[in-house]
Amino acid sequence: MSTILAIDPGLSGGIAIGSPSNGLQHIHPMPPTDTDIADLLRQWPGATLIIEKLPVFFPGAKGGMASMAKLQRNAGVIYGICAALNIRVIEVNPHDWQKHFKLGSRSKSAGGYTEWKNKLKAEAQRRYPNFKITHAVADAVLILEWGLESKKV
Description:
Blueprint: E1 4-8, E2 14-19, E3 23-29, H1 34-41, E4 48-52, H2 64-85, E5 88-92, H3 94-100, H4 112-127, H5 135-149
Parallel strand pairs: 1-4, 4-5
Antiparallel strand pairs: 1-2, 2-3
Helix pairs in contact: 1-2, 4-5
């Protein structure tokens, strides 16, 4: 049984853990420190990690350039931990995993960013009603589902 780790690498992102045979098994908000992230990922040796590919430049990023710098740094830490733990990494463009769920797009959401994030959270909750899905883990849960359903892992 192959373990899949799906990560939304934002500081307020999350981690979803599952497998092809059991689906979603665990969810965690992004651990607060680099060491905490490493301790969590270390629990699944030989896993495959799916991470949302980050843009090099994103004009108008929520929180500005400082926020993007923190996001990029956090993702770099995750890549480094995966290299050290021999965890295979698969990148997925946000557009690709989001399109898979046929929920429309962020740019076409009448309510903007908040409405879009609420749509993603609702879809993750619909798929896993026995888990408490928060905004922090919703993207990670859907990234995991994308990996399981698209057989990319």
